[in-house]
Amino acid sequence: MTLETQRDTALAMGSVLNIVRYCSLYVLCAAGAYLFFQAAQGNPIIWPATGVFLAALLVSSRRQWWGLVPASLACDLAVRMQLGDLTASEAVVLPFLAGGQAIAAALLIQRFHEEPLRFERLQDVMALLLWGGLLPAAILGVPASMIAGNALNSFTYSGWAWWVTGNCLQIMTVTPVVLLLSRDSQSHIRQAKPVFWVEVTALLVSLVATTVLVFSYDASPGAALPPYSFLPFAFLTWSALRLGPRATALACLTFSLVALWFDTGFIGADAGDVQGNIGALGAFLLIATVSALSSASVIAESRNDTERLAENERKLREVMTLAPIGIYIADKEKYAYTNPAGAKIIGLSSPDEIVGMSVMSFYPPEGKAAAQQRIDSLVDEGSGSRPRIVNTVVDAAGNRRIVEAMATAIRWDGRPSFLVMVNDISGRKQAEDAMMRAQKMEAVGQLSGGIAHDFNNILGIIIGNLELVQDMAADRPEIAERIELALKSVNRGASITHKLLSFSREKTQATTLTSLSAIIDAMQELISRSLTAAVTVENRLADDLWMVDLDPGEFQDALVNLALNARDAMPDGGTLVIAAENTRLDAEYVKLNPLAREGEFVMISVTDTGIGMDQDVADRIFEPFFSTKGEGKGSGLGLSMVYGFVQRSGGHIKVETRPGKGTTFRIYLPRATRTHTPVSTRAQTPVAQLRGTETILIVDDEAEVTDIASHNLGFLGYTVLTASNGSEALEILKTNPYIDLLFSDVVMPGGQDGYQLAVEAHKMFPELKILLTSGFTQRREHATNGEEAFISKLANGLLNKPYNRRQLARAIRQTLEAGR
Fold first, then answer.
1. Which pLDDT belongs to residue 581?
2. pTM (predicted TM-score)
């Protein structure tokens, strides 16, 4: 059997059980009507089976009606034939009238009242009374009264009124009980507390007792009710107030059944008196039932509304409490409310602290006037909202925060006010600014590296020509002296380009395992001598600093630069504190500092008590040639060298400064991952062996540079060939396979740089020695296809421009002899 077949079978069995259950209840109620609620003529006063039938139709699907309707009509006919003193026409027609009324009532209710009847709203009670009772009973009461009066062609008003009253009573007493017990009855029973059942039991017992007492008093036809006849109403009201619609519906049914049972036995035998008394009793019970159910539904609706309101308020408070953005409510003068996130943004420990504080409490002095103007305009208009703005606020600790705010006008406690939602974007703004600065520094680095490359070529040409002239003027001391002075000036220019290149270079050429505490301690005297006597130097170093992998000389230069920078920031003296400790940078720190990365670092801080800087200056201090010193008092390259060193070392540098509060530079250098430094065993080539007879191919797009290098190498005894670009060099290599060394510039036009040329040449001639030179040492995008190690080897042996004859000769000789 498939799953779908099993499901269909289960649905069919459920429908059959549903029909059997309601038909059984139908028969019970119909038989009870004949046995207990008969008038003198033998006809039932009410027909509660109609109420059961209507409830069954309302809770069943239309598909089940095809089985429920015939079964109910058959049960009705069987009961009337067995117990009723009816003619054949009455026994056949009355079941169809009762069933037709139930079907019509169900259709009207479903058409004009789409929601299920739960009697927790007054509309439910009125819908059952109108669509389920009055309208169907009034229409079908005409033929029913004729049949009941044994005169199919004679309509009697009293019979019609008797039918309408009885049917409305049975609908309003029986249908709610069956509906409420059919819907979620088990869950309500399980959820009810024992005290509820005690109270329900007490209610029903008291109601039965008072009803018996009222209706057994002077039980004669037409007798007036006793003075305490209001007592059942009191218990029905108690049920409506305390126990809800379910218990009230059960109480109304109990009250009506007891009243009808007691009163029926004492009704006179006269037919007119019977119909009149029955009509009065039915009207009395109907009014009591409708009043009680209406009261219970109104009270339940009010209670539900109150609970929903309380739940909504709870949810709103929870949303306000858990909201990640700050929410503030204030009038023109003071704050009335904030949530925990709002308190956190402005540095308060509790949201209650803000109540009564001035609305200007958290604005910087320069922003108060504009903020007050915006607030006045918003509150005076009394409606609408303002576009989102980015603003600066000052928290309770005096720290400035960048926030994004959107405000709207409201009324709060009857006063014109405004609500503002605030998002603290200080971290995001800091990260964005850091990223922009990083991109700017990268662009400046590329620019400075490009300038240095061109300048190095020029300096190389000048150095080469000066050395040639120096050779020619060996016997002219006065000329040689001038040339020496010129060479010194050129070397100073080369030193400047070296600083520029150290800013733009991405990789340190030689590193070693280094103990920073040892270097800092050793440099304390040097740093102290470099500063004025009015500056005190203090070292605060942790005892267990991790080892780092870097160029010790570059670190020493960086530390001296920072010390000299601190000296200039303390013209009247002060204190310079150099501290170092181990730390770990986490994801949150990296999120706010995009140039950093997670991991273990040694943090070196250099703190002065000087004049400090504003943020605009702090954002530019690492740019080459940017300086706050007077003209001629600095090159503007010191801090850019520090920045370049930190970047090459895989670290991160951060500056914290405020005008008048001093400055702190924090350098984060990564913990070393290796445990020892390889020691080079290669001996330095003696100067006497710098000459050679090998064949060298020089590749450079600068003709002057090529000419100088050719002259110097020819002077050293080498055979020299030249090319101006990579493709020309490859052609020469193909036609001259005896070339011993390829000496090429890195940066060249034509789409093929020195690295690419080296890779191609190495593939063609694996034994060919290769030496690269460049005035622009920024690391290029390395070749793929397994050439990374080869490229790295070439980069480590790079000859930096500008170079002199001795440096060129040593680099050529070392490259030719490497691996022999």
1. 93
2. 0.51
